[in-house]
Design goal:
Length: about 350
């Protein structure tokens, strides 16, 4: 079996050279002159690419190397949300790449997969991270099989997750916290922060969906989610379920109408425009929070991000007895288990009330 060559990068006679070995002996190849690549860091990508080709040639075309396959074939082929692709690339760089460097896809066995997951768990990462890594690697092999790059069984299928620490608890705003925030923000100059927090609290929209709202999205007492904005890019909602209309309760309608009047009663345009004069772009919600929300938070209420309102809506609806399938439709999830596992939090007050009722029954 071919032994993976790491190669050596050397600076010699004003040029960068790579040295490696194969069955015929030692070889030297010039990568470029110092005038083109003045630092080692600048030439490293070319060195890595060259050695990947060397190893791939020595392995043969039927035994693709894991690292170049993922970086040169799998990632460029992904057609997912930019945030999802970025998450995959971070996961690859932080948790996977070093464990598979030098291996061919055909050399990666179920035992290798389990050991990789076990090492991640031992490093102190959560069960959620371990599960995500397993899903990512499994997806790589599924893609390779589907496109004819790999003919074996998916080595990640059937693997049980190793023991890992529980994921960190996420935050959900209570009704009292939301009301305190809105009371504090109702007196701010523009009304923008007040309206944004009210929409986040009572619609379950995520940050990108709030950022993408336009006045024309409010129709006949409902709010129609037609787009989202991610890092300045306007996109369609990520699933058909997320395009569903959302009922606008009277309290929210009153706040939004008051904000609309303060904006000059526009019939169209961004609900939360950028502070640029032409108002052609929506304001980033993180900027809105930093400038208008966080400085005006009431005492005792901390900022936990826009997603805490979405979790809060699920939790608060469940606390008043709304069925899970209704909460699922309100949050526009395709799968009811998502709302049950990740969004509905049990509040201390809810637990106390339940136990008091149980005590009265006894």
């Amino acid at each position: 079996m071919h032994k993976h060559q790491k190669g050596s990068l050397l600076r010699k006679n004003g040029s960068w050279h790579v040295r490696y070995y194969d069955s015929t002996g030692q070889h030297w190849t010039m990568l470029g002159r110092l005038t083109e690549f003045p630092t080692k860091k600048s030439v490293l990508p070319h060195f890595d690419s060259f050695m990947a080709e060397v190893n791939q040639t020595m392995l043969g075309s039927e035994s693709l190397l894991f690292v170049p396959f993922v970086e040169q074939t799998y990632f460029p082929a992904l057609r997912l949300e930019l945030s999802t692709v970025r998450g995959y690339k971070d996961m690859w760089r932080l948790h996977v790449r070093e464990h598979v460097n030098g291996l061919a896809l055909s050399q990666f066995r179920p035992h290798d997969g389990f050991k990789l997951l076990e090492n991640i768990a031992k490093a102190g990462l959560s069960r959620t991270t371990v599960a995500n890594v397993k899903h990512f690697i499994s997806g790589v092999f599924a893609f390779a099989r589907q496109h004819g790059h790999f003919d074996g069984a998916n080595p990640m299928q059937g693997l049980k997750l190793p023991k890992a620490k529980a994921p960190a608890e996420t935050y959900a705003y209570s009704i009292a916290e939301e009301q305190a925030m809105m009371k504090a923000l109702s007196g701010t100059a523009s009304g923008m922060a007040h309206a944004a927090v009210a929409i986040a609290s009572w619609t379950g929209l995520d940050k990108g969906e709030i950022e993408g709202l336009r006045w024309e999205d409010f129709k006949n007492g409902d709010l129609y989610v037609s787009r989202k904005v991610w890092e300045g890019n306007i996109k369609l909602p990520k699933t058909d379920a997320r395009r569903a209309a959302i009922p606008v309760i009277k309290a929210l309608a009153d706040i939004v109408n008051k904000y609309r009047v303060s904006c000059g009663s526009p019939a169209e345009g961004w609900l939360f425009p950028s502070n640029r004069a032409d108002k052609a772009l929506p304001m980033r919600m993180d900027n809105l929070a930093r400038r208008l929300v966080v400085p005006n938070l009431p005492e005792g209420v901390a900022w936990h991000g826009w997603h805490a309102f979405r979790r809060g809506l699920a939790t608060n609806l469940r606390a008043i007895g709304v069925p899970d399938d209704v909460i699922q439709r309100m949050l526009r999830h395709g799968d009811i288990s998502t709302a049950q596992r990740y969004y509905s939090k049990t509040l201390d007050a809810t637990v106390r009330t339940a136990m008091d009722n149980f005590g009265s029954t006894l």
